């Protein structure tokens, strides 16, 4: 009882506690505002490809990669001259039926009768590394390709800027693709996804992951 009486009567202690709480709230709000802005800047500059296999069987996983290769080849052929994410999305929207037909043809040639569902929208992605480029977890616009039951492992790639068109097996991001990415992102955001050696940058990257994983950064309407 004496402790509580002392606590409530001690104005200096109360002031310190109140200031500490306000400082914590202010720090949290600043961190959230920063993460929200950076996350939006990154996601607004990127359009991704998301292929989901029918199952985790070896055969279905192999089929997923064949579908992936066919779609990437086609996308590369129709948007090689695109200079913005908006152009790529428009092309993808206009060619959704063609994407489905390409996927179905590959599937049928392999002796399967799976259906394919194609969607373009804003989806949640985990952290993904492409060579020395790392995209933090978050919500990104993407072309989603669901094969059959779509209950198998996923495969992700970046369609714009084109980080997956050159060599999808080596994991090496070509310099010209990095230049495309850098030209479409503010300096701060590009540093966050490309500089894994700087402790300050790594901390900022972890902040992005934390806020997304805790559900504080959500999908766009």
Q: Quick gist of this model?
A:
With 221 residues, this protein is of the alpha+beta class. It has helices at residues 2-9, 11-44, 58-79, 85-94, 96-109, 175-183, 187-194, 199-213; strands spanning 47-52, 116-125, 128-130, 133-135, 138-147, 154-160. It has one domain.
Describe this structure in words.
The protein contains eight helices and six strands. It has 221 residues and is an alpha+beta fold. The chain has one domain (40-213). Strands 2-5-1-6 form a four-stranded mixed sheet. The protein is elongated, with a radius of gyration of 23 Å.
- Count of β-strands: 6
Biggest sheet record: 4 strands, mixed
Helix content: 40-55%
Give the helix/strand class. Answer: alpha+beta
SS element count, helices: 8
Sheet with the most strands: spatial strand order = 2-5-1-6
Total domain units: 1
Low-confidence stretches: none
Beta percentage is 15-25%
Element-level helix/strand string: HHEHHHEEEEEHHH
Shape: elongated
Average pLDDT, to the nearest integer?
Answer: 80
Report the end-to-end length measured between terminal Cα atoms.
52 Å
CA-atom Rg in angstroms: 23 Å
What is the topology?
Elements: H1 2-9, H2 11-44, E1 47-52, H3 58-79, H4 85-94, H5 96-109, E2 116-125, E3 128-130, E4 133-135, E5 138-147, E6 154-160, H6 175-183, H7 187-194, H8 199-213
Parallel strand pairs: 1-5
Antiparallel strand pairs: 1-6, 2-5, 3-4
Helix pairs in contact: 2-8, 3-5
């Amino acid at each position: 009882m004496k402790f509580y009486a002392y606590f409530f009567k001690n104005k200096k202690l109360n002031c310190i506690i109140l200031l500490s709480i306000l400082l914590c709230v202010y720090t949290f709000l600043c961190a959230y505002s920063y993460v929200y802005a950076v996350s939006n800047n990154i996601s607004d500059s990127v359009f991704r490809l998301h292929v989901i296999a029918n199952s985790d069987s070896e055969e279905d996983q192999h089929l997923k990669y064949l579908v992936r290769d066919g779609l990437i080849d086609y996308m590369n052929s129709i948007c090689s001259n695109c200079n913005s994410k908006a152009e790529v999305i428009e092309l993808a929207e206009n060619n959704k039926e063609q994407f489905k037909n390409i996927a179905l043809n590959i599937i049928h040639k392999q002796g399967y009768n799976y259906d394919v569902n194609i969607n373009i929208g804003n989806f949640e992605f985990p952290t993904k590394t492409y060579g020395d480029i790392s995209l933090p977890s978050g919500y990104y616009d993407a072309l989603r390709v669901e094969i059959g039951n779509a209950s198998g492992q996923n495969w992700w790639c970046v369609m714009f800027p084109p980080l997956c068109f050159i060599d999808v097996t080596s994991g090496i991001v070509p310099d010209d693709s990095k230049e495309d990415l850098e030209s479409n992102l503010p300096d701060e955001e590009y540093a966050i996804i490309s500089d894994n050696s700087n402790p300050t940058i790594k901390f900022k990257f972890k902040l992005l992951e934390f806020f997304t994983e805790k559900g504080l950064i959500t999908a766009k309407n």
